[in-house]
Amino acid sequence: MPDGRTQAQQNMAQGAANLPLSGIVVLDLTIARAGPTAVRHLADWGAEIIRIEPPASGEDIAGARDGFDFQNLHRNKRAIHLNLKDKKGHEAFMRLAAKADVIVENMRAAVKHRLGIAYDDVRRVNPRIVYGSISGFGQTGPYGKRAGVDQIAQGMGGLMSITGEPGKGPMRVGIPMVDLTAGNLLALGIMMALFDRTRTGEGRWVHTSLLESQVFMLDFQAARYLFDGEVAKQAGNDHPTGIPTGVFPTTDGHINIAASSARLWGRFCEAIGRPDWLTREGWQTQKGRSDDRAAINAAIAEETAKKPAEHWIELFEGAGIPCGPINTIDKVFADPQVQHLGMAAPMAHPKLGAKHVVNSAINMQGLPRGVRSATPEAGQDTDAVLREAGYSEDEIKALRAEGVV
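RESULT FIELD:
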């Protein structure tokens, strides 16, 4: 292990030794959520993450570092303070970049160029660098200089126009889906660039944006328009094209039912005790069921409202019809299947105590997943990382005295 690391840091590195990204060094310049989401994938699967934050950052002052969101995003990392606006801070960054494998940032597109840490700047000292970027709307183009956040991208990218109940106006999705999708896609792009580097010996600049990610996630709704010119509208809890698929009442709440194919529709009618629906005029075809969506939903609701959710779930599952409860988040984590999947990852934090964060959703046979080290305190690894980069104790003291770290 490199000199200067604490026992906890050595344990962290040993825990990552057999993971697929062990040995990959990542400089993390990310903020907010989209960029940290990408880095979290790399961190969880063994990369050595060096998170670079400015001295006395706003996150430190506000105390947000100890909150659930920051702790969930930044586990399995080391953290240093470094003022990139200072000449000596820039020099230290470039020294770290010369030995790194990956850099990830999600600043405004122009900021990295102003700081002199963009891809073209870094590849002069390290042509093997894989440089990952997320912007609001793209690195260039008429919106290239704009700042972007999740909800703005949800609106501009079409998602809010198809979310919610008809006639009640646009509705945002209840999670930062665009941030998360952009982070997931960038992590995938970084992996492809690292794989490509094994063939070419050179790195690449990989980038996406919130807007691109949201348009990509329109998926079949976008294809409907591009292929047939059909502009999707809000459909509430109903599936836009597969009928019946939606939310139906029970005596003790609601359930989801999906019986949209001809085969499932037949099974469904038999299971619910209404075989007469199979011969009702207009209900024998997918198009007919779609055209008469409101009547079908009302008929199903009249039946499901007679008994509790558990009865219907057991009945439909037995008939091979997809269905399930509509859980609040506490019930999600109490669900036996979610517990079996280990989606609540334990994290032992030296200050906050025993906590849980959201686990990786990726499984690799024979390899552990989860939290190897808790989210670091601000700047806790600054001295150790600088020593590893070749700085002497006197040089580190001087950098501290000058406010560079």
